[in-house]
Structures are given as structure tokens and as C-alpha cells.
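Section 4.2 – Deliverable D4.2 (structural model, holo form)

The reporting period included a commitment to supply a predicted holo structure for the target in complex with alpha-L-sorbopyranose. Inputs used:
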Amino acid sequence: MKKLNIGMIGYKFMGKAHSHAYRDLPLFFPKHIHPHMKVICGRSLESVADAASQFGWDEYTTDWREMLTRDDIDLIDINAPSDVHKEIAIEAAKAGKHVFCEKPLALTLADSREMLEAVEAAGVKHMVGFNYRFTPAVMLAKKLIDEGRLGDIYHFRAWFLQDWIIDPDFPLVWRLQKEIAGSGSHGDLGAHLIDMAHYLIGDITDVIGMSETFIKERPLPQEMTGLSATGSQSKEKGPVTVDDATLFLAKFANGAIGSFEATRFATGHRSTNSFEINGSKGSVIFDFERMNELQVYFVEDKEDVQGFRRVLATDAAHAYSDVWWPAGHTIGYEHTFIHSVVELMEAFQEERQPVPNFKDGVKCQQVLEAVEHSIEQKKWIKVTDL
Ligand code: SOE
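Output (C-alpha cells):
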């Protein structure tokens, strides 16, 4: 296989990020299978036509079912809001298409399990969009942990802080509606933190959480794109049905303990996605806004120079460092999506499943839901009971 024909659904924030990844991959990874940007699908004919010409897709359509009937489409890439992930992914798998789906995989754990069953029954490849795994700093953290250089892990402490909805007049966009988004900051931001914890530390066994919706009603939206929107002139309002902030504590199977905070009300924080890990031999600190750097601390350093130091993770550690720019020339947010697609293409070349895949999506959903149960029941919940 020299190229993989892509049919993509969604053309806004994630649609643009994925399109950019498909376009850039051949330029930097010439020996990999090349994604071919065949058809892009969206609800509005005019907007999807514009997106097709701007992003570089051959064709556009408003009918995703029609894409599934085509022999010249190999993979369906789902970037639409979360409420349609399940139906599209299951139908795509039944049609024999490989599936790449944005996070969170589904609205509920049960739905995500059905999606996993469908892709496994069809024998197709499946991937979920946990793109932050692919930052240079996270790749270095993973290497240090796997090589035992942080020793036994005691703490995972993570926070994902945004502030794009602190204005009470910001409209009721789909991300604030439970029936479309599943949950609020929890599924949107917390999902990334949970995946990171699974990736770096291991299984989460028990959780207890709390959440809050600070602004309970908002103006109905007129227009929305990505994280921006305009409100209704009539000032008609609707209820916010998701959490604005969710915090939880966790126990890991390996004995480590964790704390997680996801909020859209952290005034001044545009998108602070961070974690700190403390082990018996050292610690690391990740800050996405400085995704090329990892702060590291090693107990074995001589006393007089002990302290956190900033390591440029683009140079030696990360898997694709030789492909990008000369040492010290950093990369950005869009590269996390290019790396995700590189992993997808390598999975085809090596005849294996890509990672992270729907199994990781289900595991994340299980923790999301366990936290929701713990909030409802005001007690610790065993993740494996779900
Ligand atoms: C919006 O909160 C958002 O774009 C998320 O949906 C993404 O998954 C996250 O990476 C950045 O913030």
C-alpha cells in the first residue's frame, strides 16, 4: 500500500488540524504511506466546499453515508461533535473502513464499548485522537519512566485549565450541551489528562470527584466555529447541561496516587495543560505551552547542583526528532496531529493496531464515567466495577 484514501467528517477546529497533518506528512515523512485527501464531509454545502478548497481535499459532500459506499475510501476520520461519533464509527466499520476518531470517543462508556466491538468485529484499524501523547516533552517523560529513571512513581498531578467561557454572555455552544458533548470540561479536557495518566503511569483503579456548573444559563448561539461563537440577538437563553469544572482524586494499580483538575473557568489560562510526576529517583514537569521542553529533577545529581532543570526534548529523545528541524528548532501544536497520523501510517506499514486506539478510548471513558458516578453518589468508585 503506497497511499491511504481518506474520507473526513468535520471541517472546523479538529478538521483543520487533521487536514493539515495529512497535507504535511508526505513532505517530512516521504517513505511513509501517504494519506490521500479524497473527500471531506460537512453539514453545510457552502462551508464544506470552502473547506475542501482551502485545505486541499479533492471532493466534498454533505452525505457521510455515501462516503461509506465508495470503494476508493479506505479510512474514515471523524472530527464531528461527539454525539455522532458512535453511529459514524460503527457504520464505517461495518462498511470495512478503518476509523480514526477524535476524543472523547463517545457520549457514554456503553457507546464506546459498542464502537470497540464494531471495529474489532470488522477487523479494521482504529485510532483515537489523544494527540498530546505525541509532544516531544511527553515522549521524553515516557522514556524516563519506562527506563526506570524516575524510580517508583508516587504522584501524578495534572491540570488542564482554560477560560474561553468565563463571560456569562458567551453563547450556549455544542460543547456546553450534554446531549451533544457528553460532558463539559470533564470529557473535553479531563479526557486528555486521564489518557496521559494511563499512558505514563498505568491503570487507574479508584476515583472520587466533584464538579460545578458556575453559569447555569447562556444565550442561544447564532454561529459557532471552533471555540468562538456569537450569541443570539433576541437574548433568548438555554440551560447549560454540562460541568464547567471537574476535579477528582485517583488511585493507580501500581500504588501511585493522582489528582486531576479540568476547568473552563481558570481566568487567565488560555489552555494550560500540565502535569507533574514524582518518583523515588526523580520528577518531571510538563507544560503544554512549552511542549518542546521538559523540567526534570534527579535525586542522584550532586547536592550542590540539585534542582529542576529544563531539557530541550526536541533534540535527543523524541521519536521523530531527526525528521524535523536542526537541534533547538522547535515544533508546535499542529505537529502533535502530524505525529498521530505518522503513527497511524506506521501501523498500516507494520500490520498492527495504531496506539492510542479505541481500547484506550474505552479505558478513558470508563474513568470519566466512574468519576461521574462518584460525584452523583458522593463516594469512592472502583473503576473496574463499571
Ligand atoms: C477545547 O476545549 C479544546 O480544543 C479541546 O476540545 C481539545 O481536545 C484540547 O486539545 C484543546 O481544547
